[in-house]
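Lab notebook, entry 382. We have the chain sequence and a SMILES string for flavin mononucleotide, and the next step in the workflow is to get a structural model of the bound complex before anyone spends time on docking refinements. Request logged below.

Task: model protein plus flavin mononucleotide, output structure tokens.
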Amino acid sequence: MIQALFSPLRIGAFELSHRMVMAPLTRMRASQPGNVPHALNVEYYRQRASQGGLIVTEGAQISPSGQGMPATPGIHSQAQIEGWRGVTQAVHDKGGLIFLQLWHVGRVSHSSLHGGERPVAPSAIAAPGHAFTATFERAPFETPRALETAEIASVVADYAQAARNAQQAGFDGVEIHGANGYLLEQFLQSRSNRRTDAYGGSIENRSRIVLEVAAAVSDVFGADRVGIRLSPFGVANGSGEEEPLPLYRDLIEQLALQNLAYLHLVEPRASGAGQADVDHQNVPFASELFRPHWPNALIAAGNYTPSTAAAAIETGRADAVAFGRLFIANPDLPERTRQGSVLNPYDRATFYGGGAEGYIDYPALGASAYRARGTPARPTSV
Ligand SMILES: Cc1cc2nc3c(=O)[nH]c(=O)nc-3n(C[C@H](O)[C@H](O)[C@H](O)COP(=O)(O)O)c2cc1C
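Result returned:
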């Protein structure tokens, strides 16, 4: 049954040799100043690359105003392009594929990251909860500034420029981050979008920027090297559409017309984008609901284990499954799964920020036993 994870799969322009994708994972460890990927990040991705396997990077801000947390890497400066080139080379040297996740956080940010300017968003509505400030402190989200209609074209142009930069950095493709309560989802969902121009109101209007970004990025890379991530039932960062089905059905059908390489759906089983260890039961499978509306490759993510992932693939709900927390703790997750070996547990305290600890010190098979912050490893079984 686990074998279902190890059959080849065509995704857009690429042939994967297995179906265990590394999910996008923000780790807040870019070098400062400048939010530049560096040797530590190269080693982290190198460890997690596998022959014919696909990695989707952590979200990378497409512009300075797209940043929402300190030490997240960007893809808007020459130094960042050079830094990412080290990452793509290391992954390619191991025979792996790597897509960059293009990220604009919108209102999920803090003015300390923008020289005192308020974050921008579709409407001037603050997200509930707390931001990470530039100095890694927590502060309530501020009321953002609503983007002027004329500014939206420049945000779309920033996505296109970021895609060109990603190409220069050697990425195989890009994933548009349309999930988890960030800028594009803020436009999609009525509770964060009260605009009265062509980018607000009807489903068609709320979807407009997403379709424009998908087209602009596809013009750069070719649609067969572009994926998009959506979380139709997501509740992260104050999102939550009351009636997600009509909105997302229509959006997914429109995206299908652009023939993107893949659709990446976050399942509602994972709470707040993996921010808590809750496994929500009795919730729908986004992959099952939207599969009939999407003709190309479908990647599902959210609280999957190798065995539930294999089942999702066998039933046809998904073509591949992305793993987040398990990939943090298991650099060689596909190989461990293939061999049926135990998995390292993850250490949530070291998810965000810091250095090598909890980042590049999880052992691969055969390495000495992992000791998380001085405590003995508690292996979990596949
Ligand atoms: C530390 C951490 C950072 C994350 N960063 C991102 C991100 O940058 N972009 C994104 O789309 N999702 C992000 N997510 C969500 C994961 O990609 C994934 O959807 C979630 O963890 C559920 O999958 P899992 O149960 O396999 O961990 C993050 C999750 C965690 C735990």
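Notes for the group: The CA atoms of residues 28 and 353 lie 5 Å apart. Worth checking against the assay data. The chain is about 30% helix and 15% strand.
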